[in-house]
Amino acid sequence: MSAISKNSLKSSLLQLECHFTWTLLKQDVDLDDLEETIDNQIEFLMISNTTNYNLLSYVCHLKNSNEEALRNLQKAEEEVQKNHPDEIARRSLVTWGNYAWIYYHMGRYEEAQTYVSKVENSCKELSSTAQLKIQLPEIYAEQGWALLKFGAKYYMRAKNCFENALKNEPKNPEFNAGYAIAMYRLESFSERQCEEVALCLEPLKRAVELNPKDTFIMALLALKLQDLNRVDEGEKYIEEAMQKTPDLPYFLRYAAKFYRRKGEADTALKILKKALLVTPKSAFLHHQLGLCYRAKLFQLKKTTRYPPQQQVEELIRLSIFHFKTVTDQKTKFFSAHTDLANMYAQGRRYEEAEETFQKAFQINILSCSDKQELYYHYGSFQYFHRKSESEAIKYYIEGLKIETESYARNKCRNALKKLLERRIQGGLGDATDFGTLGLFHNLNGEKHEAIKCYEEAIALDPDNEEYLNALCELRLSISS
Predict the structure, then answer these.
(1) Which residue of 31, 69, 359, 372 could cross-link 61, Cys pair, CB 3.0 to 4.6 Å?
(2) Is the pTM for the entire model greater than 0.85?
(3) Do 386 and 350 contact (CB within 8 A), yes or no?
(4) 95-114 burial string, b = 16+ CB within 10 Å, else e?
(5) Distance between CA atoms of 98 and 116, rounded to whole angstroms?
């Protein structure tokens, strides 16, 4: 193929609506984890799997397995022929777009061009104005499902995609389910950022009304009602869903989460063990099991003055076993790493706790609030278990320096303030403590309090350039 026609092909490829043009970046996701999630959904969710096979083909490409990617696209085509024999062109546009891109990356340009032409011809048949792109609700929805799988930074785009799909088909159960899930995920993420919202309740209710068989959505609705302290109402949905799909792991794991959060850890454990028989390798289930044993441990310590040591050790052992199962399998599952590290600390296994925290620091897909959470937990580990106030202060400050507001940032803020004020009020405060408290107030935007602290620090350490510079900048910022 000549350079000119190759450039022309690339120009056409960029106009296609498919996974390769939706800006789904592999650095934002654990590809092995995503591949396993899709495989499980293909196995257990009784829906048309065209969307899953298309996404799986893209994941295989990202893992440099283009032959496997082509096999998944063949399966996507088979799904379309089986479920939509009268709409093959309309339902295959994303699949054909992926075919074109994969053949292009394999250097098989003629075949790539063949699929570009198939898309172009089909678009012309479906719309007189379209060339390589056509705004179909099914394509908006497929993009929405893909975006949901790639993590929190994609949730808003996913919501927008499902909104666009719903403009044409407002009563489509699948589009309503996607929109409700996107809203639920967005809210869960917003709550971590300290933004109180409850906008997903109505979309979840609507999705359940349109498809009462979708017990996964029912479970999310129950959890949202639980968030709003409407626990009895939520439990009715869990009980109804349990009658409909007693063995569906995707429902059971959220049912267990509902009961754990309700304080019924034993009920949650029973459900999780049942789900584990169906999907024994599920990292999500093992993580939830670890959380249940941890909840039982904390409850035992809270309600018993002298808890039996053997019982305490067994609950720690079980928590560690399940959390470690997760981290061995999912090296980028951030919360499982901090949970495991903290449980090692509970068991006074400090070297293993340190090693696990260091692994968590190496995870390269952490959000700002994840990093703040990590600094908070590591700072608390230094303070409570390593008995190092200076190291604790250092890591709480690192959490505060990330300016995104979140619950984790608040935890860093409160822990640091309490620690510094206790030192200063106890007469132990030195120039470093006053300087750190000055930095604390400055990071909180409390400039007058910061100035007072830096003045105290300079009184104790008159030649410290860091404090002098900070004080000078603060005074200038107030006067300007």
Answers:
(1) 69
(2) yes
(3) yes
(4) bbbbbbbbbbeeeebebbbe
(5) 10
